[in-house]
Design goal:
The chain has a domain of 86 residues: predicted glycosyltransferase like domains (Thrombin, subunit H, Beta Barrel). It is globular, with a radius of gyration of 20 Å. The chain is mainly beta. Strands 2-3-4-7-6-5 form a six-stranded antiparallel barrel. It is built from one helix and seven strands, in the order βββββββα.
């Protein structure tokens, strides 16, 4: 099946604090994350779709928009959030696809290997 997401998800459980309107804050955790958003769980009260919340992860803070809400049972709600602005390494995790880590893209590695194999020995 073709992946429709621009930013691929990574399954990862990370603790976060959610700051709601007013001074209220709740603890939650991620189930999966991407450079642009996350699926949060551990919530006991529903957030409103379209509302803006602030997330705190370590020392990083960012604003997110609630894009979907799902009630799993009487005590558990999951929420999908989307970042209002892309923040470098908000989650504290390298989210680049495997081939792009360490600044090397897969295509670059293939070209590098072709260049090395095409060289003729001196002599």
């Amino acid at each position: 099946m073709l992946e429709r997401r621009v930013h691929p998800r990574s399954k990862m459980v990370l603790p976060v604090k959610i700051f709601l309107s007013g001074a209220a804050q709740v603890l939650a955790y991620t189930l999966d994350i991407s450079a642009k958003g996350a699926r949060l769980s551990g919530l006991r009260e529903a957030l409103q779709i379209g509302s803006t919340v602030k997330l705190l992860r370590g020392a990083s803070r960012a604003e997110f928009r609630v894009v979907w809400v799902q009630q799993l049972d009487a005590k558990q709600i999951q929420v999908g959030v989307e970042a209002l602005q892309l923040t470098d390494n908000f989650w504290g995790v390298d989210l680049k696809p495997e081939g792009e880590k360490n600044g090397l893209e897969t295509n670059g590695l293939l070209e590098l290997s072709k260049t090395k194999s095409n060289k003729q020995p001196l002599g």
